[in-house]
Design goal:
This protein has 451 residues and is an alpha/beta fold. The protein contains 15 helices and 20 strands. The strands form three sheets. The protein has a nine-stranded mixed sheet. The protein has a six-stranded mixed sheet with strand order 15-16-20-17-18-19, with helices on both faces. Strands 3-2-1-4-5 form a five-stranded parallel sheet, sandwiched between helices. α1 links the parallel β1 and β2. α5 crosses α10, α5 packs across α11 and α14 packs across α15.
Length: 451
Amino acid sequence: MFESKKIFILGMARSGYEAAKLLSQYNNKIVINDSNEKQDESHLEELRNLGVSVILGTHPDDILDESFDYVIKNPGIRDTHKYIEFAKKNNIKVINEMEMAYHFLPKDIKLIGITGTNGKTTTTTLIYEIIKKSGKNVHLTGNIGFPFAGFINKIKPGDYIVTEVSIQQLLNLDDFKTDISVLTNLSEAHIDHVGSYENYINLKKKIFAHHSKSDIAIINHDNDDCMKITSDINSEKIYFSTNKINTDVYLKDDIIYYKNEKIINIKDIKLVGMHNYQNIMCAISATKELGIDNNSICEVLETFIGVEHRLEFVKRINGRDFYNDSKATNNKSTEIALSSFTRPTILLLGGLDRGQSFEELYEYMTHVKSIVTYGQTKEKIKEFADSHNIDCTIVETLKDATTLAYNISEENDIILLSPACASWDQYKKFEDRGDDFKNVVNEIEENVKYD
């Protein structure tokens, strides 16, 4: 399918680089294009040595023509891009790196895909760690930061693959099929990318594409939209709930049960919060369906402290606790973060303006003593805060916001970065934003030492 073809890769990043490397092994003529000239020089040299044509810094009108067989686009690139519109007009197949790599998989593997609005990364990581703990050969891929294509040469028959699947990836998946699909939850997000919430939830439904009754769907029974879009799928359905006990996986008397079998008491779990218990139910469901033993499940749940940039405890300085929730790129994620604390909180809020309102955050602001806002949305956030008489200060950068938050804080305060916005106004990705926050916190600690 991808041999002796002419292939155009739009967008470098990690996924474009790995896609080009994989495809270069199969006598393909490859062009890779990115508007950003700043790329890893070792990657560029490697691709050029493999015969890949690399064009950076611009999107010339004459490099994509009707002779190409495929366009493989970075998930973050919209379908309105001129190359994508040209490809569709000229019947050139448009896919993404995940769809392409899927066609190289050996037949005898188990593929577990996780999607949803929130909780994807935590759930994906938990499933991976539990399977790994059981001694099976497992690979962690997808939107979690490890492109699928980079693992193809390592995957053997009988292996397990756990992959986080974003809405942007689902947009350009056609044949991709999982053995187990997990839908953590649904709420309004990424409307700027997909146009409407209806489009968004319909795209999320694609995680169950091509399922038969022999495939497993793990579904949040507490979420009306999850229940609605999965009513007609063909999968065997496993339902989880934190407030109902007539589902397959449920919470009763602080114990999580799977099909009426006691699995673990939540007092023995490191992660806290009802949202995390839902993520854990997803992980228990997936791994039990794979036949993983309870000891492996419990050992991971009793030690797992979370993923980086998702309500990540950074450190305590003079009685102030700093938390990095840079992965909170929408209101729902920030609502979850705010619900996790009861202590006085200084909230760092701001970033790329995606047209969202911040009104739905208000009911979660009970413990927020002050907001420090920065970035493209700062004026909108200030207007929201003022309308509810919440103390709010505007600054330009996250470094300014973090420094000010510490200066106005008191002992026992939480200083929480949970921006409710994408990072792209000031950072390439949310990981960079989180790393910057942690660096500033470390600087604050150093300055405090020498005061």
